[in-house]
Design brief:
- Keywords: Aminotransferase, Pyridoxal phosphate, Transferase.
- The protein is of the alpha/beta class.
- It is built from 16 helices and 13 strands.
- The radius of gyration is 21 Å and the shape is globular.
- The model has no long low-confidence stretch (mean pLDDT about 95).
Length: about 400
């Protein structure tokens, strides 16, 4: 791991958490549950609360500045995703966003229309859609392979016909980690007149995707997992967003930002979200000419993925050789996110507790992928040990993790 495209020291200088005394000596391997927050985001959050904590979009200067800061986040997140700002919606969380979308689709679909869901998903992108059965929708389950946890496009093809109006799938699983072929899923959806809702929560921390290239109609993720504030962000194709029944106040029916986010948004956190884009541009600058990409966001994506593949390789090699663990998902780091889960003989939470004594912050449980664990033959109450990291993790931390695992696992 000597040829990393990103200098870990320069990356970590962008995160105040790495200078926090109480976190010294702790290696963070629970990034899939929420990453550290970047300095750029924290600075904007602090400024908003100090200078513009008023009702935005008013006539006086502080109110106007507050609205401008929020507008900037819509513009910058859209830029990072390669879509126009009218795609972007902020809500309290990804689970809340899909709950609202599920309600809107329930009013939009006709009885007998079919919805395809997977059992690979976090519950946020399967539970909300499964509830549509109560409103007359036919729910079809795209099942994973019980040995690998993989979704097969051939299996998806068997479920498709003209009744299908929605396909909900993850960009990658928060357990198996394999990166799914979203662009191909979107093509298949369009071929039968369906739309796609893609859960990007477990993919986006590893580089915000180019949504124009993916072709998905809905793409959502959690800002707090992409170095930002605790909010959910969803991108919805504007024509679809306006076609879905309004879920907000009736007098806001013509305002795209209000129709799918009925709760009052957290103005300060929206304003701070533009710092996510600022941080990604910093990543691109750190990478320099070492990676290719059409713009800083594509270069940041390429550099982050290359960094994570290099970091994941020794850990996946170690786990693949260890007979006492069952690696969920592929062993090839190029085909997966570095969200790495293993099945163990003993309850996973107990092992995570022991790893904490080594300064390893990891998690054990089902991580809301209850259906996936059942599908691959692991009791959700038993859980898996999840070792998740991002590009700011260091090679030394990977070696510390391997040493701790060697000490605590047979």
């Amino acid at each position: 791991m000597t040829d990393l495209p990103l200098d870990p020291a320069r990356l970590r200088a962008e995160f105040p958490a790495f200078a926090e005394p109480s976190l010294q000596g702790q290696a963070f391997f629970e990034n899939a549950g929420g990453s550290y927050t970047s300095r750029a985001v924290l600075a904007k959050l602090d400024h908003y609360y100090r200078a513009t904590k008023v009702q935005p979009y008013g006539v006086y200067p502080a109110s106007q500045a507050a609205g401008e800061a929020m507008n900037l986040s819509f513009e910058r997140i859209a830029q990072a995703l390669n879509v126009s700002p009218d795609w972007i919606h902020f809500g309290p969380s990804s689970s809340a966003n899909t709950y609202v979308l599920g309600k809107a689709f329930g009013e939009w679909l006709k009885p007998g229309d079919a919805v395809i869901v997977t059992n690979q998903d976090h519950e946020a992108n399967t539970g909300a859609w499964r509830k549509l059965a109560r409103m007359g929708a036919e729910i079809r389950e795209w099942k994973v392979d019980p040995q690998t946890g993989r979704l097969s496009l051939t299996d998806l093809d068997r479920l498709l016909d003209s009744k299908v109006k929605l396909i909900a799938a993850p960009h990658c699983s928060n357990i198996s980690g394999e990166i799914n072929a979203v662009a191909e899923i979107a093509v298949r959806a369009r071929s039968v007149g369906a739309v796609t809702a893609i859960d990007g929560v477990s993919y986006a921390p590893h580089g915000l995707p180019d949504l124009a290239a993916l072709g998905a109609d809905i793409y959502f993720f959690s800002a707090y997992k992409v170095y930002g504030p605790h909010q959910g962000i969803m991108a919805v194709r504007p024509e679809l967003a306006m076609a879905l029944p309004n879920q907000g106040h009736f007098f806001n029916d013509e305002k795209p930002r209000y129709r799918l986010t009925p709760a009052g948004p957290d103005h300060a956190q929206i304003a701070a979200a533009s710092g996510i884009a600022d941080y990604l541009e910093t990543v691109a600058a750190i990478a320099g000419d070492g990676v290719e990409g059409a713009d800083p966001f594509r270069r940041a994506h390429a550099a982050m993925r290359a960094q994570e593949i290099a970091l994941a390789t020794p850990l996946l090699d170690y786990l693949s050789r260890k007979n006492s663990v069952r690696l969920i998902g592929p062993a090839d780091p190029a085909t997966r996110a570095p969200t790495i889960a293993v099945g163990l003989a003993e309850p996973a939470a107990a092992v995570a507790t022991r790893l904490a004594r080594h300064g390893i912050m990891a998690g054990g449980g089902h991580f809301y992928a209850y259906r996936l664990l059942e599908a691959v033959g692991i009791a959700p109450t038993h859980g898996v040990l999840r070792l998740s990291f991002v590009h700011y993790t260091t090679p030394e931390e990977i070696q510390r993790l391997i040493a701790a695992l060697d000490a605590e696992l047979p």
